[in-house]
Structure formats: C-alpha cells, structure tokens
Amino acid sequence: MEKLIIRGGNALKGAVDINGAKNAAVAILPAAILASSGKCVIDNIPDIEDVHCLERILKSLGCVVEKTESNTLSIDATNIITVDACTDDVRRMRASYYFIGALLARFKEARVELPGGCPIGVRPIDQHIKGFEALGAKVVIEHGAVKIFAEKLVGANIFFDVVSVGATINLMIAATLAEGKTVLENVAREPHVVDVANFLNSMGANIKGAGTDIIRIKGVKELKGCNYSVVPDQIEAGTFMIAAAATKGDVTLQNVIPKHLESISAKLLEMGACIEEGDESVRVYVDGDLKGVNIKTAPYPGFPTDVQQPMCALLSSVIGKSMIVETIWENRHKHVDELKKMKADIKVEGRTAIIEGNEKLVGAAVKATDLRAGAAMVIAGLTAEGITEISNIEHIDRGYPHIEDKFRALGADIRREE
C-alpha cells in the first residue's frame, strides 16, 4: 500500500494547471456508448483511477478505447458485444450507474451491478428508477444488479423529488434517443451537468436548458461520434484555492472557469484571503490573518459538498470559531476523527461540524476515509508542524491526478512511498 508523506510549513507559491472535471468525465465516458457510428475523441480527460476504471468497463462491453495523447481518449462504441456490465470495476465506483441510462437508450436493455463509491452516506438510485420507468422502462433489482428493459422509450414529464446530479445526468442520457419530448424539472445545475449536455449535443442530441431548473430534450434517432473537450474541474480548483489560503501562499490556478468557483471565492474572501480573477485563471494569496466563517453546503451555485472537507482542514488552522453544515450527505464528517489526531478541535452534532480553530495543527499518521477527505488530510498536512503520513491514498487517486507532483511543484515537501 502507498502513502503520502508531508512535512508541513511551506507556503505554496507558483502556478498550477487544473485538469478536466472528474464529475463530468465519469458521465461523458459512459455516454459515449450512445454513438452508433464514428468515434468519440474526448480531450482534457483527467488521469485518475475512476477514469481508468471506466476505460476497463467500456472495453468489457466491446468498445475500442485508445489513449491517443496523455489526456485524450478515443472511444469507438460501434460494435458493442454485450449490455451486461457486471464486473468488479462496476461495483467499485458510483458513476457506473451512468451505464444504465446509456445502454438503455441505445439498446433498450441493460444489466448493471449496483454501484459502489465513497462511503459518505446513503445514495439510493430511486430517482433514476422513477425516471426510467416514466420513459417506459421496466426495472428489476435482483442479485445485486439492476435489470432494465423497454420495448421503446417515450418522452415524458419527470419531476425529481430531490435535486440529484446523478439522476439528472442519467435521465438526460436516456432521453436523448427516446421518442418525442422529455421535460426534466427540479434538476441539478452543476457545471458538469451542463458539460454532459454539451457533449450529447455535440453527438447530435437536442437538449436545451442545462444549467437551469428545467431541461428539455427532443429525442433523436441516432447519435454519432464527435470531438469534445471536458470542462475544467471545479472541485480540484477549489482544493488548490483552499490549500493556497491554508499555507498563506500565493498560487495562480490556470485552465479554470472563475464563475464556477464563485461560492468558494466568496468564502475565502470572507475569511480575509485575496483573490484576483482572469479570463481563465484565479490567483489566491494571503496578506494578513484569516478568520473563521460559517458554511452551509448546497446544490450549485451554492457551496459544493465536495469542497467542505478540505475547507474543514483550513478552518481548523484558523484562529476563531467556524461552523460547517452539510446538507447533501448525512455521513460526510468522517474526516473529523482524522483531523482530531492532528490536534484539531472539532465537535460534530448531526450534520454540523463546530470548529474551534488552532493556529497550528500537528503532524500525525492519518488516513483518507474517502476521496475529498483525503484532500482534506493533504491540506492539513501542508499546514501542520512536523510530518504527516496519509494512508488509504487510493481514495485520493480516484479524483486528483498526480497530486503530490502538483503540490511539490508549488513548493510543498510531499512524497509518495510504499
């Protein structure tokens, strides 16, 4: 097993390139199945374990997947040989449920193992199933797998009971080849939802309204391959913004969309950090003391749930009282026990973390309990006195490409060891 070793105390300085969005890529790759002719050539793909996992699943279905450049994949789904996606890789990751919508749309049937992913709370797919059934599909869950089939898919009006990124994207994918019009209401508005819609439209779909509360889809008869570039990663960018502030550094993030980062920028400004926005860049630096803030996670454009754990690490090292209310996932404070090993003063009451900031955390042996908790441990280690050892870093590798190389280039003392 590998671990990250960090000696804290160095202010991060320099520039860092942000990769393509993990949350967009893990939906776009399964959606490439919809192309019955031609290749999908997808650029700005992050080099992360979740993407490698999806590559293996695509190949198991009969797709021809080639890495043409370091961050470019070519996917030819013309001759898919099976609609049965039941491998260890499927069980391992949450985003494998997008294969349900993609296979259903193109072949009108699928069998997909129930997905796994980070243990951050109950994540049912009831809204997905409700939507598939509204389009005319029959769904059976047996032996740990979703079996779905339909004689044909017909457009419908679907109102989501809760705002769900996964259900929004999955139904958008499924409805692209349904007969007639589909209207999705109370949908997620995240940047990666818009990016998936743009990708589908590049293949020939007719989708309007992504980024608003209502998405309208007019079904088409077929989709074809296309060239596409994935949107920059809002969450990776937020993580580096927080790390810059935590170490009282001066970091410029390149290849970002500043508007996607507004909720994070607002909280860092409230804390006393300085932020300068360019067309495709954001500079974060600290010139003075930072103070605690209160945060409540919310669907986009609110503060992202995926950034609250790194933010918790920052607030633990800032003098003053802060509070984080997690409204999306009920079990997303597991990182708190690890931060306490580094002398963080945090009390969890239900979904609320109450933080009494210390000026200095202390290095310790900790573990990444999930993907974003792992990023929080890295940020804590960068600020802490002494050495921090982070285990279970396979979680981190699922979403952050070459994280130690990027931080080392900014001046961090960080290395990976067996």
From TrEMBL:
It catalyses: phosphoenolpyruvate + UDP-N-acetyl-alpha-D-glucosamine = UDP-N-acetyl-3-O-(1-carboxyvinyl)-alpha-D-glucosamine + phosphate. One of its GO terms (molecular function) is UDP-N-acetylglucosamine 1-carboxyvinyltransferase activity. Phosphoenolpyruvate binds at K22, N23. One of its GO terms (biological process) is regulation of cell shape. It is found in: Cytoplasm. Pfam families: EPSP_synthase. UDP-N-acetyl-alpha-D-glucosamine binds at R94, R123, P124, I125, D126, Q127, D306, I328. The keyword Cytoplasm applies. CDD domains: UdpNAET. The active site is at C118. Gene3D superfamilies: Enolpyruvate transferase domain. One of its GO terms (cellular component) is cytoplasm. Its EC number is 2.5.1.7. Residues 7-406 form the Enolpyruvate transferase domain. The modification 2-(S-cysteinyl)pyruvic acid O-phosphothioketal is found at C118. Keywords: Cell cycle, Cell division, Cell shape, Cell wall biogenesis/degradation, Cytoplasm, Peptidoglycan synthesis, Pyruvate, Transferase. Pathway: Cell wall biogenesis; peptidoglycan biosynthesis. Belongs to the EPSP synthase family. MurA subfamily. Cell wall formation. Adds enolpyruvyl to UDP-N-acetylglucosamine. NCBIfam families: murA (TIGR01072), PRK09369.1 (NF006873), PRK12830.1 (NF009470). This is UDP-N-acetylglucosamine 1-carboxyvinyltransferase.
